[in-house]
Amino acid sequence: MVLSAPLSFGGGLRAEERINWLKTPVKATAPLLAPPQLPPPPSLPPQTYRYRLAPGDRLVTSVFKIEGYEAQVQVLSDGTINLPRLGTVEVWGLTLEEARQRITNGYSQFLRRPLVYLDLVEQRPIRVTVTGQVLRPGVFTLPVNSQGSVGGGVELGGVGGGGGGWPTMVDVIQKAGGISATGDLARLELLRPSPTPGGSTQSYVFDYLTVLKNGGFAPNPLIYDGDSIRVYKTISPVNVDLLTTAASNFAPATINVQVAGEVFAPGVVQISSNAPLSRAILASGGVTRRGSVTRVDLIRMDGQGRTTVKQLRYDPNAVLSSTNNPPMRNGDVVVVDRNNLTRFTDGMNDALQPLTPIVNAASIFRLLGLPTGVGSSSRSR
Questions:
Q1: Interatomic CA distance for residues 370 and 364, integer angstroms
Q2: 26 forms bridges with which residues in the sheet?
Q3: Axis-axis angle for helices 372-380, 356-368 (nearest 10)
Q4: Which residue in 29, 33, 13 sits closest to 21, CA to CA?
Q5: What is the pLDDT of residue 14?
Q6: Which own/partner pairs from 309-316 qualify as long-range (CB within 8 Å, at least 24 positions apart)?
Q7: Comparing C-alpha atoms, which of 90, 83, 77, 78 is closest to residue 60?
C-alpha cells in the first residue's frame, strides 16, 4: 500500500518539519526564577545585665499619696530590709522591679492598690576576682559612684569608660597591676555568675591584641559584683605582640628589677614593661671596667616558687626576646659578674689581707728610724 500523503504528526506537520522543530532551541519568554534564598538568621539580642540587690545597697521607698511609709533603708547582711508597718522583707537577689513588686504585694494586704516607689540611692562596692598573668592577682573591692544608673539593662559589649563611675575590665586589670610579660592580650576571659540561682556561669572571651594591632572596635565591658577576670599565659610570644602589649594601658607603666654586681649604680631600677635585659643594665649605669659582659646571671622566680638562674651575655644591640636579651619581668634580679682580671686581682688581695697590718707596721718603723725590735719590745711592755 502506497501512501498518497506524507506521514504527519499532530498539528499538521510533516515528519521532517517535526524533527527540525524539535531541534530548534526554545527562547524563554520569561526570565528563569532563581532558587529561593533563605533569609539570614536573626542576630542574637545583646546580652543584658539587670542589677540585683545584695547586702550593702541603700534604698529609698515610699507609697504614693500616703504618708508614714517613707523610708531609707540598707540591705542587711541577711539580705533583708525593714519597712514601716510591713516589717522584714527579703530582697537579696531581686531586681529593683522584683523588689518593688514584692513590697507592693506586702502592702496590698492592708492598703488598697498601693503605688510603691523604690529607688537605689547608693550601690554596694563591687567585689571582683582577677587571676592569671597579672602582677597582683587577687580579690579586689572597687567603690562605685553613686551617680551611676543601674536600674535598667546594660549591654555587656558597651564601652563603659565614664558610665557613672562603673569600673570596666581595663580598670580592674590596672587595679591588679596590669598584665605581666607572659600575659596573652588576645585571651582575656570574663566569667559572670548566672543571674538566676542554680544557673550556669557565663563566659566571654575578648581579643584586644588584634584590635590594637589592626584597629577596630575595642569592647570595654562593665564589671559587676561577683565577676571574675582571667588573663591566660601566652603560648609563643613574638616581639610585635610583646611591644604592642607593653605600649598599651593593659600593661603596668613600670616594673621593678634589681641589678647587682659590677654596675655603676646597683640597686632596684624602674624600667618600662617588657623592657629587655640591656635596658635594665643601662638603667643601673652600665657595666664597670671590673665587670664581665660574658657572664650576666638572670635570677627569676616562677609562679610555683621555683627559682631559675640563667647565664647570659650582655649585648646592648641584641634583638628583643633573643637568647641574651629577654624581656624583664617584675621582681627579676640581674647580677653582673667580675671579669677574669678582676677575679685574679681580688684573689691576690684576699690572700695578702692577713699580712697587711705587719707590712704597714714595719713601714712606719722604718720611716721613724726605729728598729723593728724596739717597736716590738715597747709594745710588749
A1: 9
A2: none
A3: 110
A4: 13
A5: 52
A6: 312/277, 314/277, 314/278, 314/281, 314/287, 315/278, 316/278, 316/281, 316/282
A7: 83
Do residues 253 and 310 touch, judged by C-beta distance below 8 A? no
Cell numbers representing residue 49 in the block: 545585665
Q: Which amino acid is at 15?
A: A
Which residues share a beta bridge with 131? 230
Type of residue found at 74? Q
pLDDT in tens, 9-23: 344 445 454 445 444
CA–CA separation, 286 vs 279, rounded Å?
9
- The per-residue pLDDT for 108 is 94
State the virtual CA torsion across 150, 153, 159, 162 in degrees, nearest 10: -20
Give dist(CA 218, CA 276) in Å, integer.
28
C-alpha 277/C-alpha 311 separation (Å) is 12
Q: How far apart are CA 251 and CA 233, in angstroms?
A: 14
pLDDT at site 145: 62
Hey, is 276 helix, strand or coil?
strand
Q: Which residue has the cell 539570614?
A: 40
Q: How far apart are CA 303 and CA 252, in angstroms?
A: 18
On whether the CB atoms of residues 184 and 231 are closer than 8 A, the answer is yes
Low-confidence stretches of the chain (pLDDT < 50) are: 1-13, 15, 17-19, 21-46, 146-164, 374-381
Strand partners, 52: 95
- For residues 319 and 240, give the distance between their C-alpha atoms in angstroms, rounded to a whole number: 12
Q: What is the pLDDT of residue 37?
A: 47
Contact 273, 251 (CB under 8 A): yes
What pLDDT, on a 0 to 100 scale, did the predictor assign at position 43? 35
Confirm whether pTM is higher than 0.70: no
What are the residue ranges of helices labelled H in the chain? 15-23, 96-107, 169-175, 208-214, 239-247, 277-283, 340-352, 356-368, 372-380
